[in-house]
Write a structure and sequence with these properties.
Layout (H helix, E strand, L loop, with lengths): L2 H11 L3 E4 H9 L21 E2 L3 E6 L6 H33 L8 H25 L5 E3 L1 H4 L5 H16 L1 E8 L7 H10 L6 E6 H28 L6 H44 L9 H4 L14 H13 L9 H22 L6 H12 L3 H13 L5 H36 L8 H29 L8 H15 L22 E3 L32 E3 L1
Parallel strand pairs: 3-4, 3-5, 5-6, 6-8
Antiparallel strand pairs: 1-2, 1-4, 7-8
Helix pairs in contact: 1-6, 2-4, 3-4, 3-8, 3-13, 3-14, 7-11, 8-9, 8-13, 9-12, 9-15, 9-16, 11-12, 13-15, 14-15, 15-16, 15-17, 16-17
Keywords: Membrane, Transmembrane, Transmembrane helix
Length: 550
């Protein structure tokens, strides 16, 4: 049976299987646990978790040497962050309107704010489970639950089926680590998925999700600390005991905030060092250098001593079929063709986003929104009270409301700028990482970030405090910060063309890149007769080749 007929017959034969994403995330990713570092078997009790399907939403590509918790955090951020942000906004508006109404006395200030943040955490962690309860399930492919690799016959069927899984997948989700590009199975999955054009490849470094969450936690802590300062400042001077308790709580909270910021900066430096390795990996990519479990152990199971089949033979055989190479004089021409594909077409797209200091704009916006939406619970009653008090009307009321809007919106703009500045500092300090203690670099960066944040924050707050309630002078620092954000993220929207077409640029969103399809030349030096078409029709000649989302 040919490969094409095998793929087409997979649904009828029941070979095409997927597992709900909620199952993959259950118990904080227990199915990502791999005791044998690459050798696993489907336990009978877990065999029923995968289900027959006609289509797979996301194919999860990852290496088994990476810890399960960072993978879970990455998947939570990729698939749940939008729902968590929307839920936080809705709950915050609901509580704000409740406090504005007659039920306001039933809602304590701090309880309602913390409930807004709790909504974000709950939906972020359990959104897939919530969806599954109402019948909506995202179907993903996780090799450990969908195919077996411990038997030679099943292994051969599995690799044929793996091609079908990839062809029937709507998106390839790569949980990237420096180890990912060195694993044979990961590179094979990329080759099989790129057989068809116009399908997105979602690539996210596994440490990025942890850093984004820590940035959220830092900003939430800073916001709460500022609210504590405001409460202490407005406390009754006669109540010295309560005032002292507030200051003690603020001091303890400041320690937590500094610890969070320092940890986030320290981990971010490691992430930037890993990202710095990605350009070299892709530009010098050779699937011949990829490692696999079987070859590393001499094709013997390390515990039982049983002989295990060679993965490399299967993968090379499949690549030969993909590239239609049967040249006996150049037995590795199909491998070199795939190497050229990765270097010349995929690498420029990925390197533009993951190879520099670029922070994914879409994820940054979600983080900023989620951190600041709960404070609408305070702002909505304040705006409503100013509107209903009757003290202002007409243009004066409009200007007062506009100032209030800027007062709230300035915080997410400031957070967005600081997130970008932080990632730029990581890259700027990277050359010093090998010559200077990381503790010193972390201390310097934390100090610089606090100074920059304080200057930007006070630039608006001071103008807001000293001007009349209807003055639009605070719009000057507000607009200046908005322009700064645009400037910091401006280069994210530029496209990097494939190496074979260096003069071409196409517009695109900042959170993804797309490069126009370019068929590799049929005759290249050392690759006679090579032809690998990523587009399925001539009509797609001006469409995207592959969309890399970060």
């Amino acid at each position: 049976m040919s490969l094409k007929s095998t793929i087409q017959s997979m649904p009828q034969l029941g070979l095409l299987r997927a597992v709900p994403l909620s199952v993959c995330l259950a118990n904080w990713g227990r199915h990502f646990r791999n005791e044998d570092e690459g050798m696993f078997r489907i336990e009978p009790v877990n065999d029923h978790l995968s289900q027959k399907t006609d289509r797979i939403d996301n194919f999860l590509s990852h290496d088994w040497g990476t810890g399960r918790f960072v993978k879970v955090l990455t998947l939570l951020w990729i698939f749940n962050i939008r729902a968590a942000t929307i839920a936080t906004f809705l709950i915050s508006c609901l509580f704000g309107f409740l406090r504005m109404s007659g039920m306001g006395s039933m809602l304590n200030h701090w309880c309602s704010i913390l409930f807004g943040y709790a909504t974000f955490v709950v939906v972020l962690c359990w959104w897939q489970r919530i969806q599954s309860l109402v019948g909506f399930r995202r179907k993903v492919f996780l090799d450990k639950l969908c195919i077996a690799q411990y038997d030679a016959k099943l292994k051969q069927e599995g690799i044929l089926g793996l091609a079908g899984f990839l062809q029937k997948s709507n998106a390839l989700t790569i949980l990237w680590t420096p180890r990912w590009a060195t694993r044979l199975w990961c590179t094979y999955e990329l080759a099989a998925f790129m057989q068809e054009a116009n399908r997105p490849i979602e690539l996210m470094p596994v440490k990025m999700a942890g850093i984004l969450l820590m940035q959220c936690a830092c900003w939430m802590a800073l916001s709460i600390a500022y609210a504590i300062v405001t409460t202490a400042r407005s406390a009754d001077e006669g109540d010295m005991h309560g005032y002292q308790l507030t200051l003690i709580g603020l001091a303890m909270y400041a320690v937590v905030v500094i610890a969070l910021i320092a940890s986030m900066v320290y981990i971010g430096q490691w992430l930037m060092q890993e990202l710095a390795e990605l350009p070299g990996q892709l530009r010098a990519f050779r699937i011949q250098d990829a490692k696999c479990y079987c070859c590393a152990h001499g094709h013997r199971h390390p515990k039982t001593g049983e002989r295990i089949p060679c993965d490399r033979e299967y993968v090379y055989w499949m690549l030969r079929r993909y590239f239609h190479h049967h040249d006996l004089e150049a037995p590795e021409s199909h491998l070199d063709s795939f190497n050229a594909l990765v270097r010349e077409q995929l690498a420029p797209v990925v390197l533009k986003q993951a190879g520099g200091s670029t922070l994914p704009l879409s994820y940054a916006l979600y983080a900023c929104a989620a951190c600041n939406f709960p404070w609408l619970i305070d702002y909505i009653p304040w705006w409503a009270e100013g509107y209903s008090s009757g003290e202002m009307a007409g243009m004066d009321l409009f200007l007062w409301l506009l100032r209030g809007m800027m007062l709230w919106a300035y915080h997410p703009l400031l957070q967005l700028a600081m997130m970008r500045i932080c990632s730029m500092m990581w890259k700027a300090f990277l050359p010093l990482a090998e010559r200077t203690w990381r503790v010193v670099l972390t201390t310097v960066q934390v100090f610089m970030m606090l100074i920059i944040a304080m200057v930007l924050f006070m630039a608006f707050r001071y103008v807001y405090q000293v001007t009349e309630s209807t003055s639009l002078l605070p719009a000057v620092p507000f607009v200046a910060l908005a322009i700064l954000d645009i400037a910091l993220f401006w280069r994210c929207g530029e496209q990097v063309p494939a190496s074979g077409n260096p003069g071409r640029r196409e517009p695109g969103a900042s959170s993804s890149c797309a490069v126009g399809p370019k068929k590799l030349q049929e005759k290249k030096a050392g690759h006679p007769g090579h032809s690998f078409h990523l587009s399925t029709a001539e009509a797609e000649a001006e469409g995207p080749l592959v969309e890399v989302k970060l």
